[in-house]
Amino acid sequence: MMATPHMLAGAAIGRGLRRAWLAWPVAFGTHFLLDLTPHLDEHAMFGVEHGGPTPVEATVGILNFVLGLVLVGWLVWRQPDRRVMLGGAIFAILIDVIEKIPPLGTWFMVWPGTAWITQFHHAFQHNVAPSRWPLGIGTQVAVVALSLAVVLHRRPAATNSCRGGGC
Prior knowledge:
Layout: H1 3-17, H2 20-36, H3 42-46, H4 55-76, H5 82-100, H6 104-110, H7 112-123, H8 133-152
Helix pairs in contact: 1-2, 1-4, 1-5, 1-8, 2-5, 4-5, 5-6
């Protein structure tokens, strides 16, 4: 899945859970669930099978990551839970960022203490072929829409349950 849907989902998790100790691990775990859904990503569109990233693939990936950062930053800037939401966005994309930053990514993928995470991450990815783009893009549009609904939802004002002497 592209970076922006992952990051928006992480921000939405931060908004919903409102506690960093709970939201950030859940956002990290959600990355794997979202990769399980059928999706189209920059590697499927512009990459080479069993090869490293092509220049176009890398450019699209970087631009998408920057778009996600800007969008999440803009959406949460004035929100009371912005720290938890920003952390959720970062934790939701963290595994992809770690794997793609050399030499950290190379080390992370081969060191026995962390190699299993990379193997787990790639074992069940459900990338679809570019010819199935309506499905591959549709799932991401759904994630973005749902995430935006959660992030932009206005919480009801607190009510005073003691009115009228009911305490």
